[in-house]
Here is the input.
Amino acid sequence: MNLLGNTPARVHINDVAVRDGFQSETAFVPTEDKIRLIDRLSRTGLAKIEVTSFVSPKAIPNLRDAEEVMRRIERRPGVVYVALVPNERGCERAIACGVDEINLVMSIGETHNLANMRMTCAQSLEQFRRVMALTRGSPLRVNGTVATAFGCPFDGDQPKERVLWAVGQYLSMGMHSVTLADTTGMAHPQQVAEVSRAVLQAYPGLPLTLHFHNTRGMGLANALAGLSEGVVSYDASLGGIGGCPYAPGATGNICTEDLVHMFESCGVDTGVDLDALLGCARDLPAIVGHEVPGQVLRAGKRTELHARPAAA
Amino acid sequence: MNLLGNTPARVHINDVAVRDGFQSETAFVPTEDKIRLIDRLSRTGLAKIEVTSFVSPKAIPNLRDAEEVMRRIERRPGVVYVALVPNERGCERAIACGVDEINLVMSIGETHNLANMRMTCAQSLEQFRRVMALTRGSPLRVNGTVATAFGCPFDGDQPKERVLWAVGQYLSMGMHSVTLADTTGMAHPQQVAEVSRAVLQAYPGLPLTLHFHNTRGMGLANALAGLSEGVVSYDASLGGIGGCPYAPGATGNICTEDLVHMFESCGVDTGVDLDALLGCARDLPAIVGHEVPGQVLRAGKRTELHARPAAA
Here is the structure.
């Protein structure tokens, strides 16, 4: 092949369920439930947890308890606690709460950025520069997300050069790491391989994360394609909850436990205790009040054998 | 990578929905509906269609119309019409109906074979030899399926050597082609790559098909792993219906239109008209009386863009 011949032995998994998942829930997820789940996720071996979003409570009512959640969770050493931040005000709130890392998001599809952020890309980048200025002198790390990196639902495929341009813009203003996000589930494995390779060739050593949705069933295949290009960091969402509420027809982050199950099956160390993670996932439907898409939760791990039938 | 560096430019897709899917339906699918769907699938560019199973109507009531379906479908040149056959009687019925190819199935997990076929592997192979004797002198082609090739739900992982042994047994008795089936969704991409490579190295030029389930979310990732090893033939099921009714917790063949969508997106020619296939899938819920798991059906093709919002 070599599909896995030169793939990394160790990857890092970032869970976005409590931010990206809960923000889409219509019923308010109680603050205590959020804190309890985050504290539990902290003990599974995840590299990062995207805790909340410092947005207007009017825009995303379910995350109106951002400060309280951020302040009351147990900050486990070795885990990076991330908050999404849309603007300077959000950045100030994040700094006040002592988050480890903020995540700034721009869609490189202009139409999607306008629809989602109400800004042109140029305006987003201007705002990012003002946010970066606020972070100077603080220990805060900044991750820049290139949304619709694998296609915009309005504008279609984005040239590789535009992804490279966005990454270059992010790095030149001092961001520490970059996420390429398949915001509406348009990525396919060939494209993931090509874009990941181009980005890592242009920016060797870049801490690069891939963020996939399973909208068209290709989520784990895309992660495999990223792995085969040496990408060592992946976003996923416990139970597969969440997605992009602004993108028509878009559903479904890839599921963290399904991703960990695939990687670990392939012999790739995720650092995550899959049983502990499945325990968290098992309690998720009770928290959100509905079934979740995760499949390993339903079918069990591939190593969980069944009792032999009496007849056999 | 090279994930897709040395992958085939053209693959062949075999649909198993009308056999593997319909056999699991509790409500009888009317014969006219079966024939109409098969005739429609015949015009999409599929390489093979697994039409029915010549089993006892008591064992699988939904396929009790095997002869009628097989005789009344339009036999389109270039499409191979396959029937599953469990024994000599089934083979005689298949020959009488003029099927192009029969499919013989043995699980290499002894416990699964006992539970599923009520035979030891040795007994299955003996029966296959008797079936092969019946086919001599006829134009009938024979495909041998190695079920539980990527793990048995009772006995666990199967050694690569056991897969190679089964393939060797099949070929030595004159079978024309082999399918490795992940009967209960235990396969993972690393394993698929390793096993496919071992089989193709041991039997160069073997017409090899891979059959995956999406039980643990890895179905399309496994197909990608097979592709990266040069495997050019894949089973899948329209709408993702069907699975193995005898395996506890097992659900879900991979979905034909989702597989075709992924391969075609990656630039791999499937020969299939995806829009025509999606048309067939769209009418499937009305035929089986319930929703089907296919995701592209729900989300649309990745190239189907949305109208720009008025605000943007």
About this structure: Chain A has a mean pLDDT of 94.
